Amino acid sequence: MRSKVSMFKRTSQKNSAPLLAGLIAATTLAALAPRNADAAGFFLPTRGVASTGRAAASVAPHAADLDSLWYNPAGITLLEDRALLLDLAVLDTQVTFSRAPRQMPDGSTRTYEPVQNQAPPQTIPQILVGGPTKNPRLFWAAGAYTPYASGNRYPIDGAQRYVLIDNTGSGLGYVHAAVGYKISDTLSVGVGLQNFMGVFRVVSTGSGYAGMFGDPEDEDLDILAETTVSSFFSPTANLGATWKPHASWTVGASLQLPARLRDGNATIDTRMPTHPAYDNATTTGNEAEIAVPFPLHARLGIRHATSRTNVELAVVYQRWSTLTEVEVSPNEVEIDGVPGVGAMPVAPFVLPQHFRDSISVHLGGEWILNDRLIARGGYAFERGAVPDATYSVFALDPDKHMLSLGAGYDLNARLRLDLSAAALIMPTRVITDSEVRQINPSDENDEITLVVGNGTYEHFGYIAGLSARYFF
């Protein structure tokens, strides 16, 4: 599943050995330094078609719902019959970045054309199955699903290119199996085992400007890099409990344990600058070991239900501050043919991150209109996980307001259809104190690199989905 770009050819230059080694490190840094987020780190604040209809207020379920596998595995104890759930969501984030003008050395001002996200909408599938066992207190569920996250693609020569050009083709997913147990009529527990998988493909640009000629943004000094990180085995788990202190009230709590994606053979393909100074030396090897940590999630919900309505208030804490750094260990990557030096290995290094913890609040519910039709609605607010200093076109994680509507319709006793739609309202963000700079291996002290994160970020998103649940 490694993705390679044929236009990349590995070349190098006559300059000093440290600069050449830095070029390899810089291309990785340009691809992965702290700008790998979509929302609250990597995920949008909902998942699942029916759950999205109530703004992901799904931690304290009161009726059969296979989405409980993700939100709170104790909820699968409400499955009275075996059920199969298939759903598909479409989501998109529309982004416009207007980079702040740059003051040139001669006193003039350089302005930049706004850039827009050109990635197509993402389709997010899931398949879940579960039900009771012969033991009336024991239940099971299993499935495969993908968290909600969108893609980004921008012009290869745009003002944003030193942060991101393209990350389409990236994705995260879970394979999950869980059991739930009814301790009593009012108390249930659940635990699930998961395999967390992911593929990150990131194309971006560094700068080969050394301060002796040209300008830091000259295109013939750009270093184009594509980094692909794949991890297909990362075990983790979730657990939860539900308690009914009263016939009308349900309290739910759950934990999603942290995980770590690690790829011992991540690929780093580069196209060195086209400037004549980068003509002669070569590089050997293009693989590295890269590790990316993912955080713990803690959820708490309380639901009130009557014969025709139910409403839940849920709070979710995501410990994204665990993403403090990304480790990169090149696998026998060397610079060859350096005059007077010969072959020189590229040493391991770490990429500092600046993510912060995120909290979201979800209020949503359902209204039974008749024996077959249920209406849903909700609102959620989530605090972004990326501060102004490291905000960029990849780390598009502002505070988010989500408004959602949904409905469920029973076609017959065995088949139900659900649909939902949600708007993600994200306030315009104006960044004036960015620390996001060009990646330049010849400028360890940031004396000649440019700040490229300042500017105005406008964003809006939507989610729409349809699911079918079959009881058998």
TrEMBL record:
InterPro entries: OMPP1/FadL/TodX (IPR005017). GO terms for cellular component: cell outer membrane. Residues 1-30 form the signal peptide. It is found in: Cell outer membrane. Keywords: Cell outer membrane, Membrane, Signal, Transmembrane, Transmembrane beta strand. One of its GO terms (molecular function) is long-chain fatty acid transporting porin activity. It is a multi-pass membrane protein. Gene3D superfamilies: Outer membrane protein transport protein (OMPP1/FadL/TodX). Belongs to the OmpP1/FadL family. This is Long-chain fatty acid transporter. It comes from Lujinxingia vulgaris.
